[in-house]
Structures are given as structure tokens and as C-alpha cells.
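for the recovery benchmark. C-alpha cells below, seq after
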């Protein structure tokens, strides 16, 4: 099983590293820069509206995707039986989602132009929900190659469409945020068609029908997953919504926060991919009552070797990175860099949750996960209510950091006690030692008398070498895994 995990991890990382960071930092960040240059606040407003649709997105899903992935990994023979019924539930949930977002928009006091943009974002979220459901079937059946292709298809299409829009010379007008959202709609729809084809090919002939008893059974079993996703999305996305609504210059502050958050999302892609691969594997191993300590330690070292390196480098070079990517200076640069630096520290703790949160999800320990997420939401919203009016984007970043530290401590403690995970002392000392060495290397690189991008590159290359020499990334362990059976 470790061999399957590692081989597919390499595939999905190669595909996604080639596409998603370029999309987020190349395309999305360029849209942000150009839109904010010509229409200050427009991207911040879009970022806030998008976050709202993400938070309420749980009512499109109700935890069905996570439940479906875990269930199919354990009982793959139920695929055809469940597929048609869950697909029917999806259509019903889409109508409920539309009503819920519109009502929330009225409560928050959005105007007509905001509702126009919000309607497009609602459509996009509905299409994404169907794509994610198709992907949950592919992942649950351990069809990681097909899932990997779908995972990058929408972003690949967006790169092509937006590259033409940005640099193709098709218009002399400044880029408008509405064009970007429409490009997303087109990309998501094509991806929806391809993902649907891959799944329907395996499902064979079926007839969608809404069976009340079956639907209620699925929703009842999925609700704990739904609550967990809702709580995590609230403290993951509510800061931008609260910034736009509460700050004195809300749309601008949301854009300031979005600059650093875009890097956070790009780097966070690796952890998300880890979780997507690990969930069905952990679910299968735990059902078979096998010890998962070895694959947990292996995964933890891999992901932390990445997280420590990129987060530390980004923190110490935060002003240079913000100035390079967004061509900003003065207060804009200072505020964006402060928020970005804090988000990078937050990133390390958030990354650990992709391992331990996935273990608890695979084990079905939804109650303790929901309690820890509920505590996170309470802490995050309370801190944001106090800090955003005073500190703006920086305050939102601090609130996120405190929330992630607390949540990580709770989930790591629960996972080790509940599932009896064992991480040997050698691996633990290796992780701590690696972190200390990385901090010293990158701090030292900032004093080199050369352009920052040279010293930054040297620091990253040295960090990778340290990861290999320290055993955080163990070639011998990887070779052993590849030589073993699936």
C-alpha cells in the first residue's frame, strides 16, 4: 500500500506542481495585480464573495464526497448502487445552495453589482461540486491516475484561456474581474464533461432517481463529514469575508490579504494532494486493522521537509517576494508582507493537519474532529472580531495563526492517543533538527551580498540537500517501498 501511495504521490505532485502553482502565482496573481491597478478594490471584493461561496459550499456537498471516498475504498462493490442515488441528491442540494447564498447575500447587504458577480460564482461552485463528486468516485476506487488528470484539467484550461486574455492582445481594455470569472466557468464546465465521462464509463447504464429512504441514509451518514468541512471552511475562509465587511477600507484590505493568501494557497496544494491520496489508503489499512505508524511517519517527514523549507524561505524573503510579484511599494508592500509572513508560519501548522486530520477522518473519528474544528471556529471568529478593526489584514493573519496552532495541537494529540500511533524518537529528533538547520541556513542566506533571488535560490537548493542528507527524504526508504509489493 505504501508503494501505491508513493508512486501516485509522485504522479500527482509532478502534474500539479507543473500546473497549479503557475496558475495561482502566474495567472491569478497577474489578474490580481492588473485589476487592482485599474480598479482598486475589485479583486478584494471578488476574493470576499468567492470566500463566501466556499463557506456555504458545504450545503452543496453535506460531507458526501468524503463519505463516498472512504466508503468506496472499503466497499468498492457498492459503486454502481450508490452512484445514481447520490447524483440525484446532488441536483437537489444545488437548488438549496442557490437559495442559501442569495439569502446570505441579502443579509450581508450586497448591492446589485455584487449580486451579479455572486451569481456567476454560485454557478461555478455548483459545477465544481459535481466535479468533486466524480473525483471522489475515482479516488475511492483507487483510480489515482484518472483523478490526477482531472485535478489539473480545469487549471490547465484556465491557464490557456487567461493567457490569451492577458497577453494575447485581443483587447485594449483593462482586464475586468468578470472576465476572469467567466473564464473559470468555461474551464470548469469542460472539466465537468471529462470527469463525468470517466466515471459514467465505469458506472454503465443507470437511471437517476431520488429515493427518499436512500437519500436520507446517505445524508445522515454524511452529516458528520459535512459539519467538519463547514467548520474548517469557516475558519479557513471567513477572514476575507470579515475583512471586506468590517475593515474601514474593506475591499482594499481584502486585496492586501489576498496577495499573501494566494501564495499560501499555491504552497498548500501539496498538502491537499497528500490528504486526497492518504484518505482511501488510511481507510483501507484501518479497516484491515493494520498498523499505520510507518506510512504516517514516512508521509509526515516528506510533507514537513517541504513545509519547513518553503515557509521559512518565504517568511524571511517576504518583502522581496511581494514586491517582485505584485510590483508594490510603501504601505502596500509593508502591509502585504506582514500578513504574508504570518500566513507562512500558519502554513506549517496547517500542513500537519493534512496528515492527522486525514487519519482521524479515515478512522471515522468525526466527533472529536468536529469538536476541535468547533473550537477553532470560536477562537478564529472571536479573534477576528477584535483584531480586524484594529489591525486589518495583519490582524486576520494573526487570528489564523493562533487558530491553526491550537487546532494542530488538539488533532495531533487525539490521533496519537486514539489510534496509538508510534513515531520513533529518531524520526522526531530528525524533524526537529531539520527545522533548526533550515532556519539557520535561510537566515544566513539573507546576509549574502548578492541579488535576493540568487540567495533565495541557494537557500532552497541547500535546504533540499539537507532534507536528503538528514533522512527527512530518505532515498533508501523510497527504494524499499518501490521494491515492495502494493
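predicted aa per position
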Amino acid at each position: 500500500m505504501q508503494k501505491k501511495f508513493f508512486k501516485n504521490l509522485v504522479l500527482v505532485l509532478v502534474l500539479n506542481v507543473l500546473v497549479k502553482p503557475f496558475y495561482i502565482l502566474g495567472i491569478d496573481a497577474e489578474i490580481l495585480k492588473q485589476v487592482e491597478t485599474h480598479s482598486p478594490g475589485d479583486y478584494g471584493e471578488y476574493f470576499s464573495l468567492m470566500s463566501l461561496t466556499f463557506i456555504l459550499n458545504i450545503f452543496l456537498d453535506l460531507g458526501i464526497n468524503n463519505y463516498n471516498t472512504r466508503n468506496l475504498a472499503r466497499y468498492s462493490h457498492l459503486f454502481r448502487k450508490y452512484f445514481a442515488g447520490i447524483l440525484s441528491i446532488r441536483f437537489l442540494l444545488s437548488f438549496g445552495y442557490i437559495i442559501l447564498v442569495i439569502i446570505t447575500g441579502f443579509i450581508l447587504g450586497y448591492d446589485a453589482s455584487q449580486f451579479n458577480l455572486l451569481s456567476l460564482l454560485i454557478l461555478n461552485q455548483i459545477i465544481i461540486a459535481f466535479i468533486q463528486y466524480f473525483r471522489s468516485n475515482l479516488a475511492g476506487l483507487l483510480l489515482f491516475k484518472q483523478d490526477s488528470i482531472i485535478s489539473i484539467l480545469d487549471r490547465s484550461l484556465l491557464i490557456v484561456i487567461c493567457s490569451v486574455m492577458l497577453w494575447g492582445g485581443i483587447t485594449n481594455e483593462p482586464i475586468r474581474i468578470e472576465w476572469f470569472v467567466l473564464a473559470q466557468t468555461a474551464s470548469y464546465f469542460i472539466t465537468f464533461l471529462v470527469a463525468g465521462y470517466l466515471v459514467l464509463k465505469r458506472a454503465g447504464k443507470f437511471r437517476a432517481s431520488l429515493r427518499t429512504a436512500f437519500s436520507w441514509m446517505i445524508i445522515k451518514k454524511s452529516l458528520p463529514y459535512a459539519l467538519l468541512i463547514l467548520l474548517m471552511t469557516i475558519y479557513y475562509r471567513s477572514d476575507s469575508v470579515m475583512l471586506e465587511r468590517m475593515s474601514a477600507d474593506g475591499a482594499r484590505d481584502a486585496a492586501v490579504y489576498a496577495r499573501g493568501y494566494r501564495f499560501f494557497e499555491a504552497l498548500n496544494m501539496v498538502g491537499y494532494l497528500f490528504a486526497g491520496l492518504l484518505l482511501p489508503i488510511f481507510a483501507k489499512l484501518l479497516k484491515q486493522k493494520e498498523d499505520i505508524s510507518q506510512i504516517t511517519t514516512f508521509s509526515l517527514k516528506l510533507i514537513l521537509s517541504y513545509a519547513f523549507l518553503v515557509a521559512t524561505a518565504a517568511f524571511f524573503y517576504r518583502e522581496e517576494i511581494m514586491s517582485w510579484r505584485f510590483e508594490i511599494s510603501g504601505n502596500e508592500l509593508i502591509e502585504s508582507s506582514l500578513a504574508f509572513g504570518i500566513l507562512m508560519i500558519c502554513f506549517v501548522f496547517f500542513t500537519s493537519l493534512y496528515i492527522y486530520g486525514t487519519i482521524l477522518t479515515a478512522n471515522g473519528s468525526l466527533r472529536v474532529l468536529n469538536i476541535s474544528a468547533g473550537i477553532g471556529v470560536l477562537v478564529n471568529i472571536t479573534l477576528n472580531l477584535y483584531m480586524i478593526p484594529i489591525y486589518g489584514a495583519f490582524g486576520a493573519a494573526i487570528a489564523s495563526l493562533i487558530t491553526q496552532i491550537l487546532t494542530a495541537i488538539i488533532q495531533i494529540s487525539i490521533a496519537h492517543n486514539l489510534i496509538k500511533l508510534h513515531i520513533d524518537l529518531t524520526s522526531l529528533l530528525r524533524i526537529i533538527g531539520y527545522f533548526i538547520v533550515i532556519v539557520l541556513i535561510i537566515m544566513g542566506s539573507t546576509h549574502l551580498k548578492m541579488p535576493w533571488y540568487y540567495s533565495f535560490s541557494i537557500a532552497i537548493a541547500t535546504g533540499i540537500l539537507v532534507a536528503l542528507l538528514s533522512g527527512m527524504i530518505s532515498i533508501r526508504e523510497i527504494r524499499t517501498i518501490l521494491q515492495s509489493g502494493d
